[in-house]
């Protein structure tokens, strides 16, 4: 342990702690713009400068390790004036149209400007002239608002290993831009949206589709059905002052009805369906000599990454669609036929924690249109639906609870944990155990795949059959594992794993690119706890025991991996050039 003094307060911290972290432990906020706890300290903004007694050297708190006996000054008049000048200079390259910005009231620069009393602009305004990049249909880049903090590049390269964004130019002319100055859609971008959630201002944001949703609701010829993803229920409350992890499922059902949606379903039903298809696919591969390891395919960001960076492993991907796409396909076939509604009248909306889902619904072929129409017509992020709820004057915290609509809304605990890293694996293991042994597992909880460790490996005993599993979250963390699988495959070596779960975002969908801003590991842990709580309270905790899923198979699909299941619920993948010509 190290002992130091921060602004006159004695602090004891672990070796390796930065001065910035030591200050926060002391209860002192040192301003930052480029710093984020997910990222390595970058030191680009200069706001966290501090003094050290006995030294004339100015230090940057975010990147300076605390040392024994340090006496740190974090706030005095000199530091205040320097920080205010930095803010004024930063704002001279940033538009002042805050009311028109999606980050209004959640902008880190805006908050600091208020705290430091910046009310005038003493420097010449110098705004970037580059146009907005809307090429992906999911994410928008607005160079005019970029403050050159570098977070988006760090996230894209370091956290995700995608390299779609990079520093271009030098000095004052540096820009954060898609690789090779291409349109973002022609770069390696996987639309994961981690650049969006880590941007401190409004320079990167999701394509807003709220008007399309409300236009559909207002159309008397449309039957508008909505589904909500597992991770949305433990994050939506944050937009209305609730703590992260608060399970708001039934309040959200009510809010969606009051917005005017005709039918409210739950993507958790689609998650249970995914487990039936993916779980039995795994059983087939393990018992009949199929391609191993089988890798999950429910994360569209990961699938996009595989198609671009690891096309040699596409046959390792499960052919099962994501829960959202399965839910959409079933909505416009099974459910539409039961109610006698023409599928072309149904407008299917999905509330997702993920910006990559906006891109997923536009994929070619039967992946997105197995029903004969577009299976999911529109995706809104958690942030978008929160804005709609607020704009309609709904007091979210005080809404009454209501139930989901039948018959494609009922779900099990296994489905709700889909939203967290390790959850898909755990849900699949619960059902695969039953499929292999014919018995229910005595303990359905698979603790070895839980937690925020970047790579988790182990063996699961399935009635004497050892299934070797791994769980990875954050695309950069997957690369070493994927490189080994590719090398072993090329060399003809037997795989040392049977089943792998990969999610593009750290923590899984609970920290997806469409979730509320301000996500760090503390928030991730709270959202994760909320989903596990929902699982524990569920009457049924295994997908194969969902009564509505059983009914779907008996009335419509026949059995997992049937011909009809393959048509509606499975897909194919293809190599995608990393840089489009």
Please give the radius of gyration in angstroms. 25 Å
Q: Hey, roughly how much beta strand do the residues contain?
A: 5-15%
Oligomer: single chain
Structural class: alpha/beta
What is the CATH class designation of the largest domain?
A: Alpha Beta
Count of runs of 4 or more consecutive helical residues? 19
Which parts are unreliable, with pLDDT below 50 for 5 consecutive residues or more? none
- CATH fold-level assignment of the largest domain: Rossmann fold
> Could you tell me the number of beta strands?
17
The second-level CATH architecture of the largest domain is: 3-Layer(aba) Sandwich
Question: Biggest sheet, strands in spatial order?
Answer: 2-1-5-3-4
Total number of distinct structural domains? 3
Commentary on this structure:
The protein is α/β, with parallel strands linked by helices and 581 residues long. It folds into three domains: 2-75, Ubiquitin-like (UB roll); 91-206, Alpha-Beta Plaits, CATH 3.30.70; 211-569, 3-Layer(aba) Sandwich (Rossmann fold). The chain is built from 19 helices and 17 strands. The protein has helices spanning 19-25, 77-91, 108-115, 151-159, 194-198, 210-218, 249-259, 267-288, 300-309, 323-339, 356-360, 366-369, 382-391, 413-416, 423-437, 475-491, 521-537, 547-557, 563-569; strands at residues 2-6, 9-13, 49-52, 58-60, 71-73, 139-141, 165-168, 175-178, 204-206, 223-228, 263-266, 294-295, 346-352, 378-381, 455-462, 465-473, 499-503. It has a five-stranded mixed beta sheet with strand order 2-1-5-3-4, with helices on one face. The chain has a four-stranded parallel beta sheet with strand order 11-10-13-14, with helices on both faces. Strands 12-17-16-15 form a four-stranded mixed beta sheet, sandwiched between helices. Helix 8 packs across helix 10 (323-339) and helix 8 (267-288) packs across helix 15 (423-437). The longest helix is centred in the middle third of the chain and has 22 residues, at 267-288. The protein starts with a strand and ends in a 12-residue tail after the last helix. The model has no long low-confidence stretch (mean pLDDT 95).
């Amino acid at each position: 342990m190290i002992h130091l003094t921060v602004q006159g307060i004695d602090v004891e911290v672990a070796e390796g702690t930065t001065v910035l972290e030591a200050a926060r432990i002391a209860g002192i906020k040192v301003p930052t713009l480029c710093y984020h706890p997910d990222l390595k300290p970058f030191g680009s903004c200069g706001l966290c400068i501090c003094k050290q007694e006995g030294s004339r050297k100015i230090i940057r708190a975010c990147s300076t390790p605390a040392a024994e006996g340090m006496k740190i000054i974090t706030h005095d008049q000199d530091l205040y004036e320097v920080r205010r000048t930095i803010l004024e200079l930063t704002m001279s390259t940033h538009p002042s149209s805050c009311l028109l910005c999606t980050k209004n009231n959640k902008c880190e620069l805006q908050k600091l400007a208020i705290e430091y009393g910046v009310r005038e602009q003493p420097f010449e305004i110098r705004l970037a002239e580059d146009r907005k990049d809307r090429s992906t249909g999911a994410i928008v880049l607005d160079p005019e608002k970029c403050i050159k903090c570098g977070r988006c590049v760090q996230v894209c390269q370091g956290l995700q290993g995608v390299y779609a964004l990079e520093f271009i130019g030098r000095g004052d002319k540096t820009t954060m831009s898609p690789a090779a100055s291409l349109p973002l859609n022609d770069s390696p971008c996987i639309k994961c949206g981690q650049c969006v959630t880590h941007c401190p201002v409004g320079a990167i944001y999701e394509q807003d589709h709220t008007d399309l949703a409300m236009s559909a609701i207002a159309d008397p010829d449309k039957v508008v059905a909505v589904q909500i993803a597992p991770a949305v229920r433990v994050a939506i409350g944050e937009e209305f002052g609730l703590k992260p992890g608060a399970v708001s499922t039934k309040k959200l059902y009510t809010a969606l009805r009051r917005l005017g949606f005709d039918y409210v379903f739950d993507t958790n039903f689609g998650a249970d369906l995914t487990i039936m298809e993916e779980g039995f696919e795994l059983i087939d591969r393990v018992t009949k000599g199929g391609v191993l390891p089988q890798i999950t395919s429910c994360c569209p960001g990961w699938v996009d990454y595989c198609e671009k960076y690891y096309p040699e492993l596409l046959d390792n991907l499960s052919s099962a669609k994501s829960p959202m796409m399965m839910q959409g396909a079933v909505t416009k076939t099974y459910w539409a036929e039961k109610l006698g509604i023409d599928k072309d009248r149904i407008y299917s909306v999905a509330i997702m924690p993920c910006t990559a889902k906006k891109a997923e619904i536009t994929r070619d072929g039967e992946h997105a249109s197995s029903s004969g129409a577009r299976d999911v017509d529109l995706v809104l992020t958690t942030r978008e639906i929160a804005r709609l709820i607020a704009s309609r004057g709904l007091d979210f915290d005080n809404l009454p609870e209501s139930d989901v609509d039948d018959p494609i809304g009922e779900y099990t605990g296994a489905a709700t944990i889909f939203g967290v890293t390790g959850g898909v694996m755990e849900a699949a293991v619960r059902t695969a155990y039953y499929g292999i042994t014919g018995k229910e597992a005595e303990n359905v909880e698979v603790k070895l795949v839980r937690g925020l460790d970047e790579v988790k490996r182990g063996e699961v005993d399935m009635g004497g059959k050892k299934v070797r599993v791994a769980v990875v979250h954050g695309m950069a963390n997957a690369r070493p594992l994927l490189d080994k699988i590719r090398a072993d495959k090329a060399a003809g070596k037997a795989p040392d794993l049977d089943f792998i779960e990969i999610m593009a975002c750290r923590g899984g969908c609970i920290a997806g690119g469409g979730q509320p801003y301000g996500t760090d590991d503390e928030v991730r842990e709270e959202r994760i706890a909320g989903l596990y709580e929902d699982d524990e309270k569920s009457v049924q905790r295994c997908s194969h025991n969902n009564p509505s899923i059983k009914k779907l198979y008996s009335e419509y699909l026949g059995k997992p991996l049937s011909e009809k299941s393959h048509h509606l619920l499975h897909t194919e993948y293809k190599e995608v050039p990393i840089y489009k010509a």
